[in-house]
Amino acid sequence: MDFIKGAITALVTPFKDGEIDEEKYRELIEWQIEKGIHGVVPSGTTGESATLSHEEHKRVIKICVEQVKGRVPVIAGTGSNNTKEAIELTTFAKSVGADAALIITPYYNKPTPNGLIKHYKTIAKHAPMPIIVYNVPGRTSINLLPHTLFEIKKNVPEVIGVKEASGNIRQASEILEFCGDDFIVLSGDDFITYPMMCLGGKGVISVVSNIVPDRVASMCNAFFNGELDSAKRLHYELQPLNRAMFFETNPIPVKTALHLMGKMELELRLPLCEMKPENREKLEKVLKEAKVI
């Protein structure tokens, strides 16, 4: 699975009049590929998966696989805090040709380490395909610790990597130490992609690459080509945009930015709503200074 590497966009899901805007979604995917992105994730957190119906969730994955046509990896978000539901979504993703599944740690339930191991083992048994575990304690209230992740890797061969979004560099280092070079560690936080690659990480599942796919891809390309000074420069150039993507809860700012870029309607699903005027003004300022709009 060496092809899962570099800048991978956690795609937003465009809406129009309460429905998935398939035309704009396909256009966004095509633009991402034209700009050199290395992979895409449909129906993840940034894609508002929490407010997609099961049928919409599946449709978003299917459209993405169809549009990509094998040009870059598609890592479908198929996680749930209900193991049975995660099996259903993962089975579907596999059936339509997704390359891997991104499966979040179960939220709200707060399973024990043994429960986490059994969760991933059961999914893999019923829907065997490459799995990237998604650790984002800020949203799930559970932190998948390195020693537990190592046990999952040891017991579930289908688990080939992790999207590590704890923001903790020490934790990322320990994952790499315990799980070895053959385990794919992707940053789940745009702020620390460069330092995580310095530790041995393989890239990022990115929010900001929705709006600047070429810049995030260029940073990763520079790093893997040994051009560390260029990668570091791009890392710092991206930081104002990274901060702007979290002026409010993701994906509110990134969808607002895409709207300002003329890429889609500005439509979010409740309980997410449009930005406060003062925050939108701050966002516009950063986008103009970065020559995004």
Rg, Å, rounded:
18 Å
Distance between the termini: 36 Å
CATH architecture: Alpha-Beta Barrel
CATH class: Alpha Beta
Average pLDDT score: 97
Number of helices: 12
SSE string, helices as H and strands as E? EEEHEHEHEHEHHEHEHEHHHH
Could you describe the 3D structure shown?
This protein is an alpha/beta fold. The protein has one domain (6-227): TIM Barrel (Alpha-Beta Barrel). Helix content is 47%, strand content 13%. It contains twelve helices and ten strands. The strands form two sheets. It has an eight-stranded parallel β-sheet. A two-stranded antiparallel sheet has the order 2-3. Helix 3 links the parallel strand 5 (75-77) and strand 6 (100-104). The mean pLDDT is 97.
Tag the structure with descriptive keywords.
293 residues, alpha/beta, TIM Barrel, 8-stranded parallel β-sheet, two-stranded antiparallel ribbon, 12 helices, 10 strands, 13% strand
SSE layout and pairings?
Blueprint: E1 6-10, E2 15-16, E3 19-20, H1 22-34, E4 39-41, H2 54-68, E5 75-77, H3 83-95, E6 100-104, H4 113-126, E7 131-135, H5 137-140, H6 146-155, E8 159-164, H7 169-179, E9 184-187, H8 193-199, E10 203-206, H9 213-224, H10 228-244, H11 252-260, H12 277-289
Parallel strand pairs: 1-4, 1-10, 5-6, 6-7, 7-8, 8-9, 9-10
Antiparallel strand pairs: 2-3
Helix pairs in contact: 1-2, 3-4, 4-6, 6-7, 9-10, 11-12
Task: Give a concise summary.
With 293 residues, the protein is of the alpha/beta class.
